[in-house]
Amino acid sequence: MTTRATASLGRRLLIAAGAFIAAALVIAAILISFVLHRFVQGQIDQRLDAQIGFLASMLQVSQNGQLRLSGTADGPPFDRPRRGWYWTVNGPDNVLRSNSLRGADLTPPDIGDRPPPPPPPPDAPEPPKDPPAPADGIGPDNRMLHYRIATLTISGRPVTIVASAPREAVLGPLGEAMRTLAISLAVLGTALIGAMLLQVRLGLRPLESLRRAIAEVRAGSWDRVPEAQPRELQPLADELNALLGENAANLERARRHVSNLAHGLKTPLATLSIALRKDAPGADDMQSLVVLMDRRIRHHLGRARSAALGGPVRARTVLAPRVADLILVLGKVNADKAVATDQRIPSTTAVACEQQDVDEMLGNVLENAFGWCRSRIKIEARADGRSIVLTIDDDGPGLSPEQMSNAVQAGRRLDESAPGFGFGLSITRELAELYAGALTLSRSPLGGLRVEIRLPAA
Counting C-beta atoms within 10 Å of the first and last residue's C-beta, which end of the chain has fewer, N or C? Predict the structure, then answer.
């Protein structure tokens, strides 16, 4: 499970930016819908107020005290019957109605208990007296209506003029505008997400370039990370280069120590070799040990010098030909056993190790396999991440868990009757570990011993 500390930077940026864009679009949609509602509502109110003003201008009081109009007031859209566009004039003695009501009554909500509007600022122009008041309610045919109600005095008589419009006149245009707005916001959101993806890719590209630069340094192609980096990555590049410089200085000191060690061991070994040339009991056996010590010391000092100067990551050894050569030599040495070998190593499989170290590791393991097997040896290699796992199986007697533990310890020989000094597997393990690898022993499917050597892939 991915923890917060190891989550992808790109994913964090995308989630944060996506959440911000979504919130911004939602807030924008709410604000725009509010503005559109106010705009559409304002247009309807202006039309209704104009109708009220028109009716007020034509109102007259007859001789019998009843209200009448000096002309017709049923112009569009108030000429549409039972569509919600209505008007009424309520006087003390009679009521005037629009023809669109078809004789129905228009009863607006009671607005008498509403609080008065707040007073205008001192510097604002004086508003008209008793402007029309808004209201919403149910009208004829159970249709939701929006009202504008004005109260005025005609010839000393109180008159209430009511004009109405269907709520669909507000909600219909608003719905169409919101659908267009939703499509526009969806297109805008898609464009913003695309721009955000592009921005994240471009923003993280310097990190990918820095990763490739570090890989080149690790592979030995470069000595330092390029110093030209973006301002945010410049401190990291400087620290990496400082660390690489310290490592180079440490390697140089190690090289000098190795050289001093080589000179320090050369003289004592030469003196010991000269002393053992005298005829003395056991001198030949001791001389062979001195030669073996000299060979081992020279080999490991050479390997240490190579590691100090260049590092093992700069080496590359293809496994298949090395294994084939060793099988050919060991097959001839053990020709009397007629060992059948099954080599399954791809021709392109290579490890980041020096060839002489690969030869020594494979030679030690294959020599044991040829010596202890009955008739079969199987060699395989497979990639496991950045490592190559080399597996050697034989059908010999194998080892117990306790023997496997002892076999990789220096100088421990499991069979004293066999020739050797007991350093083969321990040297192989040490060499593998020097390359950040490992050596493990287990039971082989063939019935004998399985040796697995894990080495870095080239």
Answer: N
Q: Please write the tens of the pLDDT for every residue from 400-455.
A: 888 887 776 644 444 444 444 345 677 788 888 878 889 999 999 998 999 999 99
Q: Choose between 234 and 291: higher pLDDT.
A: 234
Do 210 and 93 lie in one domain? The reply is yes
Identify the pLDDT of residue 3: 57
Residue 117 forms part of a structural domain: no
Q: Over the stretch 1-27, which tens digit does the pLDDT of each residue have? A: 445 555 677 888 888 888 888 899 899
- Residue 280 pLDDT class (50, 70, 90 cuts): low
* 242, 344: one domain: no
* 331, 401: one domain: yes
Assess contact for 360 and 429: CB atoms under 8 A.
Answer: no
Do 217 and 258 share a domain, yes or no? Answer: no
- Tokens encoding 98: 């629009």
pTM score of the predicted model: 0.48
